[in-house]
Amino acid sequence: MERLCLPEIFNFAAGPAVMPVTVLAQAQRELLSWSGSGISMLETPFTGDAFKAVLKQTRDNLRSLLNIPENYHILFMHGGASAQFSLVPLNLLGAADRADYIETGYWSRKTMREASRYCNVNVAASSSNTSFDRMPDTWRLDPGAAYCHITSNETANGVQFYDIPDTNDLPLVADMTSDFLSKPIDIQRYGLIYAGAQKNIGPAGLTIVIIRDDLLGRAHTTTPAVFNYQTQAEAGSMLNTPLTFAIYLTGLIFHWIAGMGGVEAMARNSEQRSARLYQAIDASDGFYHCSIQPAYRSHMNVCFTLDNNALTPFFLNSAAKEGLINLKGHPMVGGVRASLYNAMPDTGVTALINFMHHFVEKHHHYV
Amino acid sequence: MERLCLPEIFNFAAGPAVMPVTVLAQAQRELLSWSGSGISMLETPFTGDAFKAVLKQTRDNLRSLLNIPENYHILFMHGGASAQFSLVPLNLLGAADRADYIETGYWSRKTMREASRYCNVNVAASSSNTSFDRMPDTWRLDPGAAYCHITSNETANGVQFYDIPDTNDLPLVADMTSDFLSKPIDIQRYGLIYAGAQKNIGPAGLTIVIIRDDLLGRAHTTTPAVFNYQTQAEAGSMLNTPLTFAIYLTGLIFHWIAGMGGVEAMARNSEQRSARLYQAIDASDGFYHCSIQPAYRSHMNVCFTLDNNALTPFFLNSAAKEGLINLKGHPMVGGVRASLYNAMPDTGVTALINFMHHFVEKHHHYV
Predict the structure, then answer these.
(1) A198 to chain B: which residues are within 8 Å by CB?
(2) Do B32 and A3 touch (CB under 8 A)?
């Protein structure tokens, strides 16, 4: 299935990001009449049996994709991951006044800044002294902490956790926004996982929360009812009107992942795609440079710089002319970022690598 | 423009609700490649110029549609109107410990229940003693209140404000979820207006907040940053990833409203459509009955009962077989509810009235 455009476009955006074209095509076909109903999923009431079945199927499929045990609730929430930066402390602190946070880059820092409005933030580990070029492996957990928070993949910095220390009885909370559904997860190691949808899940706005049932019921009294994990768990994520269309699209994407071989296949694909790209960077004799230590390089967001930084705008413009778009690095980091989410075809990575080779050939004399 | 279905379907759902078919058709056409970009609006990064232009245009068009003065901010928020039940007190109470609420039906009661978790709720007026068959016209405002909250249209009960008493210096806050964009609004009478999108605006999840600038900066310290009116106003609703696709669709709907003659035309249409339907109810010799006082009957949600209530399920099933769907009343109210939002074609109301006539002819001997 191809889009009606020449040349083919490959979208390396960090989020909202590329979606499977077969999913978009199905959504397109049924946009005016979903499942023979004569109305769009956008127009379908959330209280009716049709949407309830979609919601249940989507939840069941996620449970199956990630082997989520029965003592974990799956919530479909509003607000995006940034809302969870506040909602995690509001819902989980209980009587505690502190929480552990692992500082690993731009997004964990943002999370910590927001959390510090609700509690004492103990920096249990940090890689700031090496400019976030790796994940910290020595953690000093606070025995009085309510939980320990990690950002499993730092989208802006391009660094990812592959080996997470054990937090024992301390509930491990993970912002998995940018690597959710890219690989299997040992759910039982976590107390809570949250993920904004706009990378591997679906449309921006939808947020998935997976929470172990013993962590419910600790919410601060000022937590808005619709953002209280317990009330939403009890209401099956229907306390207020859910993001109906986003949940429907997410269901199509879960189905696509299952059909492609599940998260195990997604892990193989993203590992291979990112390895090829990192290899092209490392083999460029310093023309391109990735500052992240090899063992911690993200399979989702490949961040690199050009040795001659003055060439970066030209690199980005030339790439865009070849249909390789949204490659600009995060504003706080600069350089180039190629996000390789599940829906990025291998041919996109091949096209990018070819472009990078040609760009070196044309410009290596400027270095 | 017609959908590919026979017979034609008319969707009377209270929300998510019918959308203009030309808008859906445009969204369908460009779902895989928006505006020649080669990518879907669902895949378009929110930080890029393309989406920023969509957001600005959508905001500007709303300002123009409703003549919103420059000292009002327009925010595109996450969470739906139910989130605002908490976010209004969190953002507006400031040092005050109380607020006025006007009790007019199911939704205002829900709002008040949530607000009472944050402040003393003064019931400044109520129509509960007449079973919410009208809007209360005598209000006893509390001089210590931070604001006065109304629900401009009660979706479940089918009762609507047409004449709102003056609150003078007390900021008037209105949940306009179910009649927003159905008529002109004298914005300057309000301190804050909010509306969930899933009636006349766009997809569920998106929430529009219109706030006078002097009301910013009063948020309680525990207000999540992404739900703080001031921080979102300063960030142009881009503090976190906005609901990009919902905002795009909303923009198409604003454009459609403007092309149809603006909110003045929407007001004429909804007045005429609802008048025809109420007239059919009132002319049925008691077969159908609307309990709402004529001066307060909603132009958006026409609620009625069958004198022989045992016939209601049969009425609903028979209507659905004729393509008149989602007519079931709110579970807390029962009976029949025909929601006549902007996108409901006049032919839908004609079809419903014809069906109601035929139903009387067939079943009047059972009354």
Answers:
(1) 241, 244
(2) yes
Give the global pTM. 0.97
Encode pLDDT of B71-120 as tens digits.
999 999 999 999 999 999 999 999 999 999 999 999 999 999 999 999 99
ipTM: 0.97
Report if residue B145 sits inside a domain. yes
Shared domain for B249 and B269, answered yes or no, is no
CA distance B342 to B197: 13
Are residue B210 and residue B293 in the same domain, yes or no? no
Q: With pLDDT > 70 as the criterion, what percentage of chain B qualifies? A: 98
- Looking at the domain assignment, is residue A283 inside a domain? yes
Q: Which residues of A carry out catalysis?
A: 107, 175, 199
Looking at the structure, tell me whether residues A137 and A151 fall in a common domain. yes
Q: How many Å lie between the alpha carbon of A40 and the closest alpha carbon of chain B?
A: 8
Predicted pLDDT at A1: 47
Domain that holds residue A63: 25-259
pLDDT of residue B137: 87
**Residues of A with Cβ-Cβ distance to B25 under 8 angstroms:** 32
Domain C-terminal end among B204, B230, B259: B259
B36-54: average pLDDT: 96
Q: What confidence tens digit (pLDDT) does each residue in B174-230 have?
A: 999 999 999 999 999 999 999 999 999 999 999 999 999 999 999 999 999 999 999
Report the CATH number that the domain containing residue A297 is assigned in CATH. Answer: 3.90.1150.10
User: Distance (Å, rounded) from C-alpha B229 to C-alpha B131?
Assistant: 35
**Is the predicted pLDDT of residue A3 greater than 80, yes or no?**
no
DSSP per residue, A274-342: HHHHHHHHHTSTTSEE--S-GGGB-SSEEEEEESSGGGHHHHHHHHHHTTEE--BPPTTT-SEEEE--T
Mean pLDDT, all residues of chain B: 96
Q: What is the DSSP letter of B328?
A: B
B215 and B75 fall within a common domain: yes
Mean pLDDT for B329-351 is 96
Catalytic residue flag (residue B199): yes
B285 in any annotated domain: yes
Distance in angstroms (rounded) separating the CA atoms of residues A306 and A286:
8
Question: Exposed, middle or buried, A71 (CB in 10 Å: 0-12/13-18/19+)?
Answer: exposed
Q: Which of A246, A233, A194 is nearest to A87 (CA)?
A: A194
Choosing from B212, B227, B259, the residue where a domain stops is: B259
Report chain A residues whose CB lies below 8 A from the CB of B327. none
B85/chain A closest Cα distance in angstroms: 8
Q: Return the pLDDT at B8.
A: 87
The SS3 call for residue B130 is helix
Name the minimum distance, in Å, from the CA of A171 to any CA of chain B.
22
Element (H, E) at A112: helix A106-115
Of A8, A40, A205, the CB nearest to B78: A205
3-state secondary structure of B175: strand
Q: pLDDT band at residue B1, thresholds of 50, 70 and 90?
A: very low
B245 and A203 within 8 Å at the Cβ level: the answer is: yes
